[in-house]
């Protein structure tokens, strides 16, 4: 029971991880980059409204770039899987002996004896669909992707980026002086980065407290560097 | 010969892809987000120097956030591999029968007969290192990560982001009026996005021309949206 429990746990982890990892991708950058940009501009311009304009432009730019980037990545993965599968189906038909040797090679790499390699290759060759499935997964290391992955991925990443990006920008809507707004923005965003880092680490099975501190430090470092450099150029 | 050529090609592809994919990650966002931010601000502010300040702040923020994000991802992958490996070593020692069943489960999922599953599990169990290697790769789907991956990844992503981000910003250093600079920035960046998209598609085995067009369109769309939204708020 512990046995199947262990395997089941692993599979569940893989299932939920597409959606969760898209949220993590979008929100990690959404909380960090607009925060650091706003902080950088706070050291270089006189009015919060300019920070808001730049921040909004960044959120739009970042969410579209990351969202459509996620869409393309998803489409590319699906196209790649399809074209590789067509090739394997064709090869199993055209050059079965060569494909059988590839099955043997996979098991040779696992450290199995030549006898066993032959028996396995013969058994798999009996069912062509199974054979192709095997080649896809174990020779090429490809899992069949979810057909709606690209669209879901684009939306999840884009929305997460917007939600994350509005957090550091909020104070600049409400406080006129960018230096003052920056203080509130730091407090609010660092708290959110800590909470985000905590849950992100929990989900990915890392120690949550040190993970939270690391995520928060990256945000603080990016903001401090942007502040310093923008001041030099501003 | 074609056979090993095929496998060899596949492995080479996997080898080079860490470095290449880091360049792609950094440069895709570096070319797109600062470009769109600069375009957005060009519709809302009167002086190119402000666009330069915001652009520099964004490049610093983005390269640190993405670079350190890549570092954390690399460290997390390495830590995860180590902790899973320790657990498998421990389980092979403590509950060998359960682990043998997990080996059989892997081959049952491949569609092999119960007899073969038993023979394979017995053979693998003879060498504990091989056995743990097998569990890591085929039960958990984990490959041993490069120990320097995190640092290399951080530097490659960060530098690629800076290089990409300076392209759309260059015209604003040279041309005073942001509206004028935007024109040059569009031409230079869209050409670079096309070239980048072309090579990216070649490397990932996609049709290069349509890939180049897609990457260029994402950049143009992000820039147009940022321009429109910043104008509303500016």
From TrEMBL, chains A, B:
Looking at the UniProt entry, the stretches that span the membrane are 154-175, 181-199, 211-233
What Pfam families does this protein's entry cite? VIT1
Compartments annotated for it: namely: Endomembrane system
Which superkingdom heads the taxonomic lineage of this protein's source? Bacteria
Query: What's its membrane topology?
Result: Multi-pass membrane protein
Task: Recite the UniProt keywords alphabetically.
Answer: Membrane, Transmembrane, Transmembrane helix
Task: Spell out the protein name for this chain.
Answer: VIT1/CCC1 transporter family protein
Q: Where does this protein come from, organism-wise? A: Fibrella forsythiae
């Amino acid at each position: 029971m512990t046995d199947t429990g262990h395997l089941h746990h692993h599979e569940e982890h893989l299932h939920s991880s597409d959606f969760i990892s898209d949220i993590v991708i979008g929100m990690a950058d959404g909380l960090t980059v607009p925060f650091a940009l706003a902080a950088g501009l706070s050291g270089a311009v006189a009015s919060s409204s300019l920070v808001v304009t730049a921040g909004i432009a960044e959120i739009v730019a970042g969410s579209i770039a990351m969202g459509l980037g996620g869409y393309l990545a998803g489409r590319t993965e699906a196209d790649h899987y399809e074209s590789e599968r067509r090739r394997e189906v064709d090869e199993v038909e055209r050059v079965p002996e060569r494909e059988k040797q590839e099955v043997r090679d996979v098991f040779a790499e696992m450290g199995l004896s030549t006898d066993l390699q032959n028996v396995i290759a013969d058994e798999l060759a009996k069912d062509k669909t199974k054979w192709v499935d095997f080649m896809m997964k174990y020779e090429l290391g490809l899992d069949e992707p979810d057909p709606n992955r690209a669209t879901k991925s684009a939306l999840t990443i884009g929305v997460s980026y917007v939600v994350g990006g509005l957090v550091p920008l909020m104070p600049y809507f409400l406080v006129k002086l960018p230096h003052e707004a920056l203080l509130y923005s730091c407090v609010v965003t660092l708290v959110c980065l800590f909470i985000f880092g905590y849950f992100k680490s929990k989900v990915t099975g890392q120690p949550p407290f040190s993970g939270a501190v690391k995520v928060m430090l990256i945000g603080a470092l990016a903001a401090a560097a942007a502040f310093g450099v923008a001041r030099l150029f501003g």
